Structure formats: structure tokens, C-alpha cells
Amino acid sequence: MVTAIPSLTAIPAPAPSDNSIGQISFTPSDAWTTVSLDESELNSTCGGSLSPYRRVTNVLNATVSFNYTGPSFMVRTIPSRTGGRFSLIVDGFNTTTFMDTYDPDASSPEDARGRNLNNSCYRVRQYPPMVIVPVGYENRETHSVSLVYIGAGRNVSMGTDPRSLSVQFDSFALPIYSEAQMSSAPTIAGREYGFGAVNTFALVLGFTAGSLILL
Predict the structure, then answer these.
(1) Domains along the sequence of the chain with CATH
(2) What average pLDDT does range 3-30 have in this prediction?
(3) pTM of the model as a whole
């Protein structure tokens, strides 16, 4: 039984290190484009992608889904000037929580993919917290997550052609907590899951979007 709902600023109860993540699915399949990353993106100064690929869509209601076991999860997206929004559905429940990937400071989509945005070129969000937590969430160990593309971000200019917008999904992660880390260190080990890559990273609690330290 899960004993706590975690947040970005409080260390949650320990989660098992062998969390079950299930398979990442993208539906409908023809709505998603697979983009291979070049070496400069994989090794950029911001840490780069932990997966050799990213998935991109501009089709409304296109969905990326996965299952996980544990009290929390993290999602890693790529911001851009043409970034749209995901709606977060957990355990089949609309949490009224959104992931906005719009970034007006990205000088080009290429910059937003890891070259010139420094430590903000990848955004990492941890859930919970959510605007509305599904009833009984804390009593379940296994959960389902769906990220549904719903269109323009909140601050996209009025009149922007929706066909020019998109969302870019990189990977998701599950925190792995140990008693030693909880009692003596401000970082938490985690495991990142993308497309054909599994790596370890450290998440700093209370971080700003994208401030990821690679081990």
C-alpha cells in the first residue's frame, strides 16, 4: 500500500527499485512521428536526451500511455516556440492538470531540442502533485497514465495556425528512493525510460524545469 503522495518539495515514502513500467504506447500510431537525435543533441550541455529518439505529434487527441508501479512518476518533454499542451489522465481520471511545452525564448525548434536552452532544454515534471488527484490514488500501487495532446499552449499568440504546433515527448522516469538517500542526501536516484534507452540520473528536489544532473 502506498503510504504517501509525493511532491516536488517533500520526499515521499520509499518506492521499490524494481517498479514495473509496462510498455509505452502511442495512439493512433500514424499520428506520431519518430525523430532520431544526432550526437550533438544526445551530448548537449543541458544533459541532452536519455533516449536516442523522441516522438512528435500535431494531431489533436493523439495519446502517449504507460503504466507504472509506485507513488510517483516524471515526464520529460522538449519545449519550443511551437509547443502545445498535454492533458494528464491518471487511472482513467481527468486530473485537470496540463503540461505546456510552449517556450517563447526558443529561437528555433532546433534550439529547443537541446542546443541553446542550457539547463531548460528538457523539462522534467513530477506527478503528483496534480490539480485533482484521482480518488483512491494513494491506495493503489499500479497506475495508468495517458498524455493527451489538446492543442495550443496558454501563451501561444492568438491566430497561430494550430497545424504549426506540436508536442515533443522524450521519456518518463520513476524515482527510486533508498533510506540512505532520504536521510542524508538532497538527491534521489531515478530510472529514465525512453525508446530503447535506460539510464540513471539524479533528481534535485525543488528543481526548476529541466535542471537535471546526470550521474
Answers:
(1) 25-172 (2.60.120.260)
(2) 52
(3) 0.68
